[in-house]
C-alpha cells in the first residue's frame, strides 16, 4: 500500500484554490488540479487519509470524461505527467495518476444534481413534500426506489456550508434560459449514458452531480465526474428497495463516526486502520468494476 498524500506542496507553482480533497494551481492559461488522499465526512476533513484515494478518483474521472466526450466537451487538456510543462517536471512523482491539467473555464454557479433513485436528501425532501426541487413525484415511493425517469434537481454552488436545493425556474433566473436548458439536457444525457454503462458492470448509479463552465463561449463539463465522492454507486446484487443501500464511497467512515458518537465538531477523530483499509478497498472495487482495469 502506498503512502498517504495529505498535503500537495509544489514550491514555485501558484496556488489557485484548496478544497477538501483537491488542490488547484494556476498555470496562467490553464489549471493544474491535484487530488490528495484527504477524506471528509460530515463537512470535516479527517486527520488521516485513504491511501491512493486521489489517484483512484482521478482515474475514474478520466475514464468517464473519455466515455462522455461525444455527449459534451470537457476541460481536460492533459493527464500524462510526462507531457506536463517543464516547471511541473520536478513534481512528477507527486502528481502521477492523481492530477490533470484542465481548461480555465468560467464556472456556472449551479451544482447540476441528477437523481435516478430516491435517496439521501432527496428521500428526506420527498417524505416532507412528495417532491424534490419543486418537481412533484408519484405518491407511495419507498426509500431507494427507482424513479420513473431521472430528474434534474439542481442546488446552489455554496462556497461554505451546504448547497441549497433550487427549482429549475431559479436556475433560469441565475444563468439565463439557454444556459439552464443546456446544462439540464447535458446533465440528464450524461447521467443516462453512464448509468446504463454502470448497470452492465453490476453497479447502480443512484445519483450524481456535475459542474459546467464557459470556455470561449462554449459550455463544457469541468471538475470531477462520476466518482464515489460525487455520486452514489450501489452494488446491483445487494440492492433492496425500502432501505438505505451499501455503497462504494465513505460508508465505512460515516458508519465508524456514528458508532463512536462523535459530536461532529472539531477536532475530527483519527480513523482506525481497519476503517481506512475497508474504505480504500471500496474505492478500488468501484474503480475496477467500472473501468475494467485491475491496476491504477
Automatic annotation (TrEMBL):
One term of GO molecular function: phosphoribosylaminoimidazolesuccinocarboxamide synthase activity
Gene3D superfamilies in the record: ATP-grasp fold, B domain, Phosphorylase Kinase, domain 1
Pathway the protein takes part in: Purine metabolism; IMP biosynthesis via de novo pathway; 5-amino-1-(5-phospho-D-ribosyl)imidazole-4-carboxamide from 5-amino-1-(5-phospho-D-ribosyl)imidazole-4-carboxylate: step 1/2
Provenance organism: candidate division WOR-1 bacterium RIFOXYB2_FULL_48_7
PANTHER family referenced in this protein's UniProt entry, alphabetically: PHOSPHORIBOSYLAMINOIMIDAZOLE-SUCCINOCARBOXAMIDE SYNTHASE
Pfam families given in the database record: SAICAR_synt (PF01259)
Gene Ontology BP, a term: 'de novo' IMP biosynthetic process
Keyword Membrane attributed: no
Record NCBIfam families: PRK13961.1, purC
Entry GO terms, CC: cytoplasm
SUPFAM superfamilies associated with the record: SAICAR synthase-like (SSF56104)
Protein name in the entry: Phosphoribosylaminoimidazole-succinocarboxamide synthase
Its EC number(s): 6.3.2.6
Catalyzed reactions per annotation: 5-amino-1-(5-phospho-D-ribosyl)imidazole-4-carboxylate + L-aspartate + ATP = (2S)-2-[5-amino-1-(5-phospho-beta-D-ribosyl)imidazole-4-carboxamido]succinate + ADP + phosphate + 2 H(+)
Similarity comment text for this entry: Belongs to the SAICAR synthetase family.
Keywords: ATP-binding, Ligase, Nucleotide-binding, Purine biosynthesis
CDD domains per the UniProt record, alphabetical: SAICAR_synt_Sc (cd01414)
All residue ranges annotated as the SAICAR synthetase/ADE2 N-terminal domain in the record: 17-266
InterPro entries reported in the protein's UniProt record: SAICAR_synt/ADE2_N, SAICAR_synth, SAICAR_synthetase_CS
Amino acid at each position: 500500500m502506498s503512502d498517504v498524500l495529505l498535503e500537495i506542496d509544489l514550491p514555485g507553482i501558484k496556488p489557485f484554490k484548496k478544497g477538501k480533497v483537491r488542490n488547484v494551481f494556476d498555470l496562467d492559461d490553464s489549471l493544474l488540479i491535484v487530488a490528495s488522499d484527504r477524506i471528509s465526512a460530515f463537512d470535516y476533513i479527517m486527520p488521516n487519509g485513504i491511501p491512493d484515494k486521489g489517484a483512484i478518483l482521478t482515474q475514474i474521472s478520466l475514464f468517464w470524461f473519455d466515455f462522455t466526450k461525444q455527449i459534451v466537451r470537457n476541460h481536460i487538456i492533459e493527464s500524462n505527467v510526462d507531457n506536463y510543462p517543464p516547471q511541473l517536471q520536478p513534481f512528477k512523482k507527486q502528481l502521477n495518476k492523481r492530477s490533470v491539467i484542465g481548461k480555465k473555464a468560467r464556472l456556472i454557479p449551479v451544482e447540476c444534481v441528477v437523481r435516478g433513485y430516491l435517496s439521501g436528501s432527496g428521500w428526506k425532501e420527498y417524505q416532507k413534500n412528495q417532491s424534490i426541487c419543486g418537481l412533484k413525484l408519484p405518491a407511495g415511493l419507498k426509500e431507494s426506489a427507482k424513479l420513473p425517469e431521472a430528474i434534474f434537481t439542481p442546488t446552489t454552488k455554496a462556497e461554505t456550508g451546504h448547497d441549497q436545493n433550487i427549482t429549475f425556474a431559479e436556475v433560469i433566473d441565475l444563468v439565463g434560459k439557454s444556459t439552464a436548458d443546456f446544462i439540464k439536457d447535458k446533465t440528464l444525457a450524461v447521467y443516462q449514458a453512464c448509468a446504463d454503462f454502470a448497470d452492465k458492470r453490476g453497479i447502480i448509479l443512484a445519483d450524481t452531480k456535475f459542474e459546467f463552465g464557459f470556455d470561449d463561449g462554449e459550455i463544457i463539463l469541468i471538475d470531477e465526474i462520476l466518482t464515489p465522492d460525487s455520486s452514489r454507486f450501489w452494488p446491483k446484487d445487494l440492492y433492496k428497495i425500502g432501505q438505505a443501500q451499501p455503497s462504494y464511497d465513505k460508508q465505512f467512515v460515516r458508519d465508524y463516526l456514528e458508532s463512536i458518537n462523535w459530536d461532529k465538531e472539531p477536532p475530527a477523530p483519527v480513523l482506525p486502520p481497519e476503517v481506512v483499509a475497508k474504505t480504500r478497498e471500496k474505492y478500488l472495487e468501484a474503480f475496477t468494476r467500472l473501468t475494467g482495469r485491475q491496476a491504477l
